[in-house]
Amino acid sequence: MVLSPSAPGIRRAFGASLPRRSRGARPAPASRRRRRCVRALIEGLGSFRKGLGEDQMTPPQGRSLLTDGDEAAFSGRLLALARRTALEEGAGALSTVRLAREAGVPKLTVEKRFRTRADLLAALQADILVEAAEALVDALGGMSPRRPQALETLCRLWVAHWLDHPALFRVAFPEGAAPPRTGPRDPLAPLAPYFEEGLDGEGGRARADLLLCALHGIVQAQLGPRPGDWTEPGELVALAVDAARA
Amino acid sequence: MVLSPSAPGIRRAFGASLPRRSRGARPAPASRRRRRCVRALIEGLGSFRKGLGEDQMTPPQGRSLLTDGDEAAFSGRLLALARRTALEEGAGALSTVRLAREAGVPKLTVEKRFRTRADLLAALQADILVEAAEALVDALGGMSPRRPQALETLCRLWVAHWLDHPALFRVAFPEGAAPPRTGPRDPLAPLAPYFEEGLDGEGGRARADLLLCALHGIVQAQLGPRPGDWTEPGELVALAVDAARA
């Protein structure tokens, strides 16, 4: 499995009919820099492959959402449509009314699943985080959380994932950082063993929180207006993991 | 001097005629929690006073911008108007056309100062950061960067400042973290001595960057949807400073 934009959630909803972004357009300097950072982050991690250079795909338009499939698949398709809108126009453009129009279903059909705009946004964010967590666990390829380098590998892949998908990052974290973990509905639950194993001992919870905050800031710095002013993200991740272990 | 919303930039532009926000409205639970965090962050810092409970003020409407004053003051007033728009409706609502309309001046008058929307946003962000840096240096009240607790005090105040002014934070950092320092036009230059003194030695620059990223993430976590899930920001700041020193 690869840590790529063709991630489980959308793939489940739309099968194999997903368009790939054309490679014709020359990337902006910022995105070329980001790609270099991503390569540096995953360098030496051996078995990981990434769909570098591809942007997040968006589901195709004009497809009837009411063709077969069960309730979960239907909600998944609604979320995929909402994701397209958020990626193209920002999370601010989301609404249940618009989603109903685009899906070609009555407004009530959407609001039965997502009562309000906030519910819809929360569900979309959870969807993106679950997808990221699943992609990361896939990319870790069964590496035991007990292996000494497991935590740093996970953190490098986490940062690389978001640098590779900045638009998804902005939708998933529009105003603040992710809920870290804890709780049965935590979308990042699959990653918890790596944090628990890598940061056990006294104050482990606080050190894990600090590490998550630092990783978040490292991504943000790279997505900001002057990413080149910052120390390379790979070096920062290594420092952050060391610090959290201390 | 106090670290309060009545900060230098806006005050310079509009003198003492700034309205205070009414205290009548009951704050939402999230903002009450934030206020508790801010209090914890500045507890024990002795000589610091904060205008807790006040939101960022916005300049009054309908005031002619072309009454006397020099060029810098005029640009400052335009920026203050732009700030009001960004605080009330988000940075996405900014434009040179709208700013000209609100200031009651021709579009070209605005575009001579801020050529594009991006220039305007960048100037507004720099204005907010300069203001934060000045307020922090004021709040430090001449504490020498050499004092052992200077760096942690600065970091606590930095996080407290943004938790106290979340709307300003969102305008200043709409998609990414701040440019850290370096360069003559760096709005955070006044804070540099504290980072240099507190984090000297080998790898100091990388450790300072990590600390800034962590502080950014700590604020973001508190502004996110489930701030209560995170370790208290005061504890995280202390850990982050310790880690950066190691």
From TrEMBL, chains A, B:
Cell inner membrane recorded as keyword: no
Matches recorded under PROSITE patterns: HTH_TETR_2 (PS50977)
GO molecular function: DNA binding
HTH tetR-type domain: residues covered: 72-132
Keywords assigned: DNA-binding
Disordered: annotated segments: 13-33
UniProt key word Cytoplasm: no
DNA-binding feature ranges: 95-114
Pfam families registered for this protein in UniProt: TetR_N
Name recorded for this polypeptide: HTH tetR-type domain-containing protein
Species in which this protein is naturally found: Phenylobacterium parvum
